[in-house]
Amino acid sequence: MQIIQLEAFLEAADRGSFRQAAASLQLSQPSVSARVQSLEEELGVALFTRMGRGVRLTETGKSFRPYAERAIQALKQ
Asked: Which among 41, 43, 23, 42 is positioned nearest to 32, based on CA atoms?
């Protein structure tokens, strides 16, 4: 698990879109999608439900979010 994966996950969760998360992180949309997908593969669970042009956290994604937020906060400190 890498910080860049967690940042992409949290940004997409906040914005409800990989495209908007990519713009915020100054990355391409495929890069954000790949980071989230690799995180999901590592964890063995789906964190988002993909819906047309947007994404929504799954129940597992909602449960994982506080852990990701704490990890980012700890790394910043």
From this structure: 23
Contact predicate 54/16, CB 8 Å: yes
Whether this model's pTM surpasses 0.90: yes
Residues 46, 58: contact at Cβ < 8 Å? yes
Give the Cα separation of 31 and 60 in Å (integer): 22
In order along the chain (77 residues), what is the average pLDDT of each group of 10 residues? 96 97 97 98 97 94 98 91
Amino acid found at 25: L
The reported pLDDT for the residue numbered 74 is 94
Query: Closest Cα to residue 35, out of 52, 55, 53, 51?
Result: 55
Separation between Cα atoms, residue 15 and residue 4, nearest integer Å: 16
